[in-house]
């Protein structure tokens, strides 16, 4: 009887772990790469124009920024607004859904700051 309970617990934990890992993979698929989290981090401070994002996201090129913004738009995380001005003005901002990542990105930033202190602050 005890063995059966242990097997059930192990199966339950395995099922929970598998479900958890699928969710982690889904998140990684959307946020993977060098730039997406940084772009979302920049946009968490408000609307930005393309060149502002280029300045904020150190090292990203225009072509890569365009690609990443398109991908973030396709996943309903970023909204692109085109204004009929001369020249045309384009602004990017987080969608309501994109704002749900602010806490996640904030936690990553906090961890990064603490890690930097731990490694370089010695």
Oligomer: single chain
Instruction: Please work out how many helical segments DSSP would assign.
Output: 6
Percent of residues in helices: 55-70%
Poorly predicted runs: none
End-to-end Cα distance: 54 Å
Strand-residue proportion: 5-15%
Structural class: mainly alpha
Q: Please provide the ordered H/E string of secondary-structure elements.
A: HHEHHEEHH
Strand count, sense and closure of the main sheet?
Answer: 3 strands, antiparallel
Number of strands: 3
Instruction: Output the strand order for the largest sheet.
Output: 1-3-2
Radius of gyration: 20 Å
Please state the average pLDDT score.
90
What would the principal axes of the Cα set say about the shape? Answer: globular
Task: Give the key terms.
single chain; 122 residues; mainly alpha; 3 strands; 66% helix; globular
Task: Give a short overview.
With 122 residues, the chain is mainly alpha-helical. 66% of the residues lie in helices and 11% in strands.
Description:
The chain is mostly helical. Helices cover 66% and strands 11% of the residues. The protein has 6 helices and 3 strands. It has helices at 2-31, 36-43, 50-56, 62-74, 96-99, 102-120, and strands spanning 48-49, 78-83, 89-94. A 3-stranded antiparallel sheet has the order 1-3-2. Strand 2 (78-83) and strand 3 (89-94) form a beta hairpin. It is globular and about 60 Å long. The protein starts with a helix and ends with a helix.
List the topology elements:
Layout: H1 2-31, H2 36-43, E1 48-49, H3 50-56, H4 62-74, E2 78-83, E3 89-94, H5 96-99, H6 102-120
Antiparallel strand pairs: 1-3, 2-3
């Amino acid at each position: 009887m005890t063995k059966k309970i242990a097997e059930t617990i192990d199966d339950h934990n395995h099922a929970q772990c598998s479900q958890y890992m699928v969710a982690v993979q889904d998140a990684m698929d959307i946020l993977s790469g060098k730039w997406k989290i940084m772009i979302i981090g920049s946009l968490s401070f408000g609307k930005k124009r393309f060149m502002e994002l280029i300045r904020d996201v150190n090292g990203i090129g225009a072509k890569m920024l365009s690609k990443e913004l398109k991908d973030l738009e396709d996943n309903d995380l970023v909204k692109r607004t085109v204004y009929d001005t001369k020249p045309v003005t384009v602004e990017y901002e987080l969608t309501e859904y994109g704002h749900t990542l602010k806490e996640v990105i904030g936690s990553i930033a906090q961890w990064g700051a603490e890690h930097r202190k731990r490694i370089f602050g010695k």
